[in-house]
Amino acid sequence: MLDDIISERLKKKERLESLGFSSYPAESKRTHGVDDVLKNFEPFLREEKKVFIVGRIKAVRNQGGVIFSNLEDETGKLQIIIKKDLLSHFSLIEECLDIGDIIEIHGIPFVTKRGEKSIVAHEMRWLTKSLRPIPSEWYGIEDVELRLRKRYLDILVNKDIKELFIKKSNFWDAARKYMKKSGFLEVETSILESIPGGADAEPFVTHHNALDVDFYLRISLELPLKRLLVAGYEKVFEIGRVFRNEGIDHEHLQDYTQLEFYSAYEDYRGLMRFVEKMYKYIIKETLHTFTHSYRGNTISWDSRWPKIEYYQIFKDLVGLDLKKATREELLEEARRRKFDAASNLGRGRLIDLLYKKVVRHTLISPVFLVNPPSDIEPLAKRMKKSSDRVERFQVVAGGTELGKGFSENNDPIDQRERFKEQMSLRELGDPEAQRLDEDFLEALEYGMPPAAGYGFSERLFSVLMDKPVRESVIFPLMRPKNE
């Protein structure tokens, strides 16, 4: 069936070209977008103003000597009237025009007897001959994998999906605008790294042919940006892609956009105030409201966000006191709850597992989850009165983490020891434990000012849109079709 349609359309293309019509010309003469014509329709109608408009054919109705079609560009949709007595090649249009073709119309405004605003064509030419049929706007593409694999069709026939990615652009525009008006310098750092760092994640590996050396795709923006604090910049941020070679679920991607920023002479307390204001600005600019649904819950961002102590909520819900709980006790609790916990998991990884399985899903309204164990955050500064905890917070809402920040550890001696602890975990079989980065430690030895840093990813946008994160990516990574 599909092959027959493609074959028929190829014949139409050949027919057009045999008569001297180009199926794919390089230029168009467009003078107005559809929205411009509609906004100025009354004066254009009075003046009988001729306009060039372009767009894709979304419907064709042949009524014998007159063809009515709907033409759509990025700005809107308008009816086109093609009359036999006005175009010498009407019979060719009648024979070859298909839904999906992109055409150029030169014509004047006209109102039908039913009152529909239209353009009567005085000239028409093809800009692109469509060779494949476009799915119906009414039925769309029902198969989720097919929608994601052929996202261009999903956007073409689904206005909500098209609007989603306009909102996503506005989301990142708002984030960038807020950072710049707050005095931050936007920078770009390398995607390729000789040592991946700044997060607990497995990296993707690639090979540099000219240097004959393996490099890693970055898993975080953190360490290069902190080097810039050593260099003397006091407020820096980057919006860029990061890559993590980990599992796929409704909250995680392997290739995604992240914003990270670092502010010298700031700590996590001031950072929390800044982040709350920033989120409220971004959310209002994106949604035009502070309230939305996510996975059956209503989330409201406009009130003050409470602070919840990590140790206390862990004790309340898991039943273990992190001041005393050993690695063995944590492992026993995880297995008692039937969680998949390998025997070589370190204490920090077990704490994180129990938190994610037992605690996180209970946090629906926005909160700051503060002061977790140092085991789970090797780059954060220890608390003055409780060295087993770090000055870190996470924004949690809808049962998921939507950003993380902390007072940065600028003590090169302590940072080296904590990197060594991470390397010991790697030797015990933890592939996500962080690597010791001598170059970063050397930078710290020159002196990094006290600072606080924060990062959030496009997961925040997906929560605002009440969609799985993969649905919020314009072209999500998919397994090759032939595998």
Automatic annotation (TrEMBL):
One of its GO terms (molecular function) is lysine-tRNA ligase activity. It is found in: Cytoplasm. Its main location: cytoplasm. InterPro entries: Aa-tRNA-synt_II, aa-tRNA-synth_II, aa-tRNA-synth_II/BPL/LPL, Lys-tRNA-ligase_II, Lys-tRNA-ligase_II_N, Lys-tRNA-synth_II_C, NA-bd_OB-fold, NA-bd_OB_tRNA. It is an enzyme of class 6 (ligase). It comes from the Bacteria. Keywords: Aminoacyl-tRNA synthetase, ATP-binding, Cytoplasm, Ligase, Magnesium, Metal-binding, Nucleotide-binding, Protein biosynthesis. Belongs to the class-II aminoacyl-tRNA synthetase family. This is Lysine--tRNA ligase. It comes from Candidatus Harrisonbacteria bacterium RIFCSPLOWO2_01_FULL_40_28. The gene is lysS.
